[in-house]
């Protein structure tokens, strides 16, 4: 830290499921190893995960699982793949969490004011508030790069360029609505000022899309020409931010990675048969019902004659759920003989040891699967999961379904499993992709980029200049994006 001795205390804020938060834990670990003091502001239910890595956790948002499962619009979006239902549901969720989150965030900033705030997924307004009202330097670090593209992103149909306009019409009102909700929540706190009155709509959009300041994207550089070919130079792809295998091993006693008992079960199951199993896990996604998912998974394994490790996830998939589905006894017997259900598992450790990986396409799981060197199958539910399915298809290292998970049957999934495990081209491509992925370390790169940002933007005063411009000038950035 010799070049940035005045940067000592860093806060990271991020909202989401475990898969959304774990990359920020990886960054926090590397920052702490580099000598910085790190505090992670996230959902209540991620305390054990964050603390298992020796990081300080600060309750900021409600339990992510409860937030999602009690939001009908977001559950509909997950089940149907409807992107616009997600946007509507996110507005409802913002209204529910804003009063508590605003107070917790403000209290933390007052009590433990950091030198720098790293802003993650779905926390853009906190960056705006920190910059404008608290005059606090911020750096945005994202898991996605949403930019105008010849191919539509987030599951929206590609409509000859009109998809970019459609995306703006969906996200623009969402940003304004969410900003006003949080703004009102902050203004209700003693000594707090609102920021929305100082930022008009075009300026707000310019801030959100991040054209005039560095934004770190925790995706491999090989994904840029496929997913974001027109992304501006301000967006820097630094590689996937993942928990190191060694750290996973050291922390395996933590329930966040399944604990010692789960690890022992995994080792025993892997060694029980010469046939490598297939990993299946959908994390925080729920498609139709837990019973439907359990039957689909085991039936696809049976039809493809594969052993399997199935993650319970938020759907709590288990042998008992399969039994409750009142399916045929033969399927239950197949599961007892060939399938291991686990509540959680260390991806970086497990994925290289399986024959293929089936998952929903979340950012964190996709990174781990691409690094594994094993073929990947993505069954997307919504949003950027469709983009990750497209990425896998384009890289040739697996099968990325273009249809939503709800519309995929066990026959199709079994065919995909047979395809990626019998055609050598998929395994060769998977090995090649993994080699490229391992040349980058998003977490370590984020530390170096943070140091550069502090020197080039904060110490130089450039971030203050941007803050002043943001508050005083109008922008036509929204027009440029809408017409791209």
Automatic annotation (TrEMBL):
One of its GO terms (molecular function) is sterol 3-beta-glucosyltransferase activity. It comes from the Eukaryota. CDD domains: GT1_Gtf-like (cd03784). Residues 332-440 form the Erythromycin biosynthesis protein CIII-like C-terminal domain. Gene3D superfamilies: Glycogen Phosphorylase B. GO terms for biological process: carbohydrate metabolic process. The keyword Oxidoreductase does not apply. Keywords: Transferase. Residues 10-118 form the Glycosyltransferase family 28 N-terminal domain. The keyword Transferase applies. This is Uncharacterized protein.
